[in-house]
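batch job 7 of whatever, protein = Monooxygenase
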Amino acid sequence: MPATVPPAPQVLIAGAGPTGLVLALSLLHHGIRPRILDKAAGPGTASRAMVVQARTLELYRQLGLAEAVIDRGIKVEALHLRETAAEVAQVSLQDLGKGLSPYPFALSFPQDDHERFLVERLAAAGVAVEWDTELAGFAETPDGIRATLRRGGSETEAAAGYICGCDGAHSRVRQVLGLGFPGGTYGQLFYVADVRLAGPFQPDLSVNLATQGFALMLPVRSRGMNRLIGVVPASLGDRPGLGFEDLRAEVEALLDVRVEQVNWFATYHVHHRVAARFRQGRAFLAGDAGHIHSPAGGQGMNTGIGDAVNLAWKLAEVLHGRAAPAMLDTYESERIGFARSLVETTDRVFRGAVSTGLGGRLVRRWLLPRLLPIAAGFEAGRHAFFRLISQIRIAYPDSALSEGKAGGVAAGDRLPWVAPLDNHAPLDGGGWRLQVHGAVSPALAAAAAERRLPLDAFRWTAAAGRAGLARDAAYLLRPDGHVGLAEPRQDPGRLAAYAVRHGLSFAS
């Protein structure tokens, strides 16, 4: 029989990739101590996720992580589009989202470095990842879950209020729940390599959309290396023991580089799947355990981190008794809809990028090189591209937590960022708060004070209007910075009704 260990904290996390690590850090930020384990011996060393999007940095700011992550990464300032051995277009990515986010850029920060950073931050907060520890199984009990953990040849039992599977595409949590993972696998075999190039360090993003292959290159600041990702030619896909030397000539030609050193090399297949459910009872799925898709647009890791932040504050509110248990239902309804939409979008982009048909060749060789530089020359074009990839457009209009609209901002939207006020500065991820741009009515001020609900008042500016905010409207903000209630008349009765409906107690 497995030996019994002391009761675990309230949330057990299986999987210590970026999703699980951010979930653990977010729970700690909300006063909930997690337990996190992973069957691997340590953080990954051959990961392929590279880009940290603006919305992730906004969420990291609430956790006090953003500046440290930016310092360790590198801002990608230009995109070089290549066709065969020639550059056909260059697009500036500097301040792509200026005026839309305090982080108007894409950051290159490889997942392996990213994971080590998060592990260090978690350890500094007093929580160590339990490596070499596998979740063997679990069952729900009347007041929580009971899990069996396997380390080496021995098993132990652990109790927790909830369990979250952040354990990747082959999630043990999802398997125990018996949830389907519908979707498919692309036929192409991909490679990823960490290399040192001859000549000066290349800090830009290069993409080759040649008919005979697909390759991209991103910078790795921590080691002065570059990450190469691409499609293995079909003629080599079945070669046993495939290595970088088999691809060297083609890769160097496609990207116009010479590789001096290969740090590591791996191959992988790309899948597109979304789990049937993200929640079943006291068990949740997040990150790759719930959704996997093509790497187009650098969305996968960022989506998992978004899952983690969304789930963490809701678990904390319920565990602290500050929200009704039904709050947890909104995790699945909010995140699974976005995951399904993302899989569809990245699937279309991916198929276009690797298509060898006439349509795909026209898009890659004619449309993109001509239209992208033109669009990037106008603010509207830059902003449209930034909104598309940065994840600041994520919204939950159909969520049970979303009510009302004021100006151009509807409940469920991410609170628009207003420069130079920086109205995101008060958002510390710690709890609910009100925000008003304009005059605050005495009735609303009294209602906020009575409920110990922080109220941030900003003077009205034209910039707030351009961002879509309504003058004198009250926006009740969730801990993740999305609008829960948009109230144009500052009606304290509507605020009270909203709190009662969701069982909210705003006092921390």
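notes: Residues 462 and 471 are 10 Å apart (CA to CA).
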